[in-house]
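Lecture notes, unit on protein representations.

Consider one protein chain, 612 amino acids long.
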Amino acid sequence: MSILSLRAIAVSALIFISGICFSQEVVPHYSVLEKEDFITLNPDYTVYQKSILTIQIWDSKGLSHANRVLYVDKLNKAISFEATVTSLANNKVLKKVKLKDMEEVSVIDDVALYQEDKKKVFRLDGVPLPVKVEIVEEALSTSNMFMGVWYPIEYPNQKVNKASVEISYPNELGMRYRVEALDSIPTQVNNGNITILKWQTENLPVLDASKETDWPNVQLAPNKFSLEGVTSTMESWDGLGKFYSQLIDQKDEIPEDFKKEIFEMVQNAEDDYEKISILYQYLQKNYRYVAIFLGIGGWEPRYASDVINTKYGECKALTTLMKGMLKTVGIESQYSLVFAGDVIRPLDPDFPIKNFNHAFLRVPLKDEVLWLECTNNYLPAGFSGNFTKDRDALVVTENGGFLERTPDYREFKFNTLKNSYDIQLLENGDGTFKGSSSFQGFPAMDFFALNKFLDDNQRKNYLNRNIGGSGIIIKDYQIQTGNQREVPIATVTFDGNIQRFGQQTTKRIIFPTHLKKIEADMSDNGLLNFQEEITIKSDRKTEIESGVSNIEIKEEHFSYFVDSKISEDGIITISNRLEINIPKEISKDDKAKIIAQINTQIQKNIILKKSE
């Protein structure tokens, strides 16, 4: 991956975490930047990059604006680096740093077994302000697959006086670009079989780290590319799919002795989904996730036979093994690529580009399409939760590929929560209770993780925070998990005490019609079917004096129904049903306002009159 591309990824992560935008208000700046970038694509697919920067830093908050990172791996080489730090107070050179002086750090994470990447790091510290930092850096990438994104602004709260980028490429390899939030038209010069594009901009608005919008940028992508000798085109998603189809070709072949085990596992399965589920559970129980970043830029999966022998793999390897197992029993599937995780990166149908960090499996059945998350070791087959929900994926076929959208799970069967409480009300308004909660889809996910990863005390703490409302103290509990096809199911039974449930006066008892307050994360994708039934018993004979007996509320984004009644023997039963349907495109702030409105409107009380 190129230096420019990796820097762009880091900046994109900063955008997501910080929330940065333009503002007409005066935004403080802690540094002033002038820079020139040069990117040269050579006929042999190598990419040379040079950056010349001058940064004036007047505030200690801007010291990090001079930080530089050069990535060094099998594809990328740092050619040179020189930083000169000069005092703006007396024009004295304070320090000089060259490539050999930079700190070298291994790039490795907690799950990687082996990774070749390193980075050279320059950090500015220990200098009196104000200073001027002049930096010249050069790098070479052996592949043009990762052309990346050019950002004229590198940090929030940074003033850019001037910024430019010049891109040179052979016409036979071609180049595409997409400009976002940048009011600058490139100049173009044709020099024989070489084309030169140049963007120049001045006096850009300072970005505010507390607000959210797109950063100005130019995204680059080649028409033809090569990665370690494997060449393809990127002018269409089909062309990019052809590249990945070369990488996975014959990797899913299963050894003959293991095929016999596979047939034995599924011999009693009644349909294709059951076969998929059996093999998926086998994968979950017998193989562990370990990242290995080798091969063609870390993008080539290992052979399924190697994974079988070692019993571990990362997303590419485990997906390839699952693909091979399904092929063995006659079920078609397609290796697919996506940008997974909390950050969603839409793919442009008209601008193909390598923008993936994860492999998983698409399985087309007769009446539905399943997506298998082969790195998850506890969710049911066909449900991947938030990790790859509702985003663009590149589906790789034998000779190409196409884009498809993953499920958004906006069905109530994936978003249902039902609570049932049997409360014995005490004279002081406290109570004892027994209850059960059932969860379907997203509300059930946490309970799979609870059973797998947490101890008894941690589970109980979680239940006390999340089952019912405030004042509930759970003493004993039992958690059961399972699935109805691809829908995860969890059931929790419990008993304990509830404090301050009823407010007592001499002649009356007042208590709420529902226990659980609605939280925004209960409807992650804007959909929720929430049902609650409360049965209340009291040693004191009572009758309903006022409150809710039967009411229905219908608003734009939710409907709510509650019914309460009292039996002849004094048992009170309250039934609630709430359906939330918030558009998925809505902002977080607007969603929070709707949830607050719902909680206000469903906040009802029942007043009981104590009998003489």
